[in-house]
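User: Sorry, what's this?
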Amino acid sequence: MARRYFGTDGIRGKANRHPMTPEVAMKVGMAAGIAFNRGSYRHRVVIGKDTRLSGYMIEPALVAGLTSVGLDVRLFGPLPTPAVAMMTRSMRADLGVMISASHNSFADNGIKLFGPDGYKLSDEIEARIEGLVDEDLSTRMPTGAGIGRATRVDGDIYRYIEFAKRTLPREMSFEGLRVAVDCANGAGYKVAPGVLWELGAEVVKIGVDPDGTNINLNCGSTKPEALIAKVREVRADIGIALDGDADRVLIVDERGQIVDGDQLMAVIAESWNDDGRLAAGGIVATVMSNLGLERFLEAQNLLLARTKVGDRYVVEHMRAHGYNVGGEQSGHIVLSDFGTTGDGLVSALQVLAVVKQKGGTVSEVCRRFDPVPQILKNVRFGGGTPLEKDSVQAAIESAQARLGNSGRLVIRPSGTEPLIRVMAEGDDPRMVEEVVDGICDALRAVAA
């Protein structure tokens, strides 16, 4: 059944346009509250958000919906997505809500929901909530003392700061490391520099002046150029780039070169495997992760299990098969020994710990394999099903035949934008570019 509201990572869209309107947000709050009503006690929900201007609009609408069906609400204000997931479990909440559009521009916003276990919701639960959103819920709303209360909570960010620090050995110190951190003017702008400083690092921070409209604007993990320049300017040992809700991370080495999520997963997997901490004999990544990562792991007799795109699906596979490391090339890294979702800060701390233990430079420690040439291009479309057109199918079949067994081809619609993503990789970079361009040309012809 086609989804009406939820995409691959919650509900997302342009703020004040369907589905990211106050009306829909209120209905989602009502529906989610009813879906997680599990008894006669006072139910609790925690809400965090990033720094977008529209958060001031979406947050009270959600509060209205949730309190109207009897849930008591705790409002944290700006807080990373993984912190909301952690707080949901830590505070025995029935539901966690993060208001964020992650790496999107400030004009967008989104709603991510977490169950009482701190995990993102399954497709089945999201489908149930979607069904409730369009129902008349007036007969299921309490009156009198049954209506919920909302309380703004100050200071609980320190619970997450202590949690992040405790993911490292007690004796671990980053003293002697100069760390540049870019918080994307987003949800991690307070906690990330604080954690790094408390662990002994010399911290140079950028992207820590949110004004409601500058989240992810020429900063953060999707625009790392500012961090690269800062690393070179201050001669930092490492640069850490978070995205708007701080659930993903990219690293910049001391030379100003980007280290992506595939390399970071390789660093953590190798280190944890050497320490006997890596579970299930491998890691989980999506179909977009580089073939070079797969070959690197195979050389160490480790497995790479692949899922469809979306960190939610990575986590589902990890839980089902006992893995404790997984993630995406984009920098969503899930370490289930510590958390239930991608955590950019905790992942960066684990990488910093390996750098400190090995004593080398970041460029030496964090480049574990040579990536196979990979090209990803996006084609925007206005509607319909361009992937089903005969001309597009013919271009895809031709590309697969050319790549053969020496490469991979992944074509998928974006779950958050009206785009079709075309990715190919293989040992021959010229052929890879040709097959991607051929498919993109065919898509543009039918999309027009």
Observations:
- The mean pLDDT is 95.
